[in-house]
Amino acid sequence: QAPSVTHLMQRSEHSEEPYKVLCLLPALDGGHVWEAEVAYAVSEYACTAVDFLVQRSGLAFLDYPIAVQVAPRVVEIMGDRLGWSNRRRKEELETTLKALERFCPPPPRE
Predict the structure, then answer these.
(1) Which of 29, 42, 44, 49 could disulfide-link to 81, CB 3.0 to 4.6 Å?
(2) Residue 25 in contact with residue 39, Cβ under 8 Å?
(3) What count of other Cβ atoms lies within 10 Å of the Cβ of residue 46?
(4) What percent of the chain has pLDDT over 70?
(5) Separation of alpha carbons 20 and 110, rounded Å
(6) How high is the pLDDT of residue 4?
(7) Radius of gyration over alpha carbons of the chain, in Å?
(8) d(Cα 54, Cα 110) in Å, to the nearest integer?
(9) CA 96, CA 108: separation in Å to the nearest integer?
(10) At residue 80, does pLDDT exceed 70?
(11) How far apart are CA 2 and CA 8, in angstroms?
(12) CB burial class (10 A; 0-12, 13-18, 19+) of residue 23?
């Protein structure tokens, strides 16, 4: 079981409705990316998983394998919040995984 965090997010200055989350939220990857951060990024106009994993969280730079591992869950959360169809979710995941390949470390030299 992944660790959890009590997280409270206040109203975004760009959001018209109060955005509040007060609960125990499980970590996606054991500590690096919180589900609430993905939801918050959407409220701040993130509209692709690549935007979140590269620009918003920097996870693609910090830990490529974890970014690939959490990409499906990031797409799921964003898809739920943005109303994506199953087809759109599939395309988003494919696009995200392809984009993340840029951050794959090179194989070790022999």
Answers:
(1) 42
(2) no
(3) 23
(4) 70
(5) 52
(6) 33
(7) 15
(8) 30
(9) 25
(10) yes
(11) 19
(12) exposed
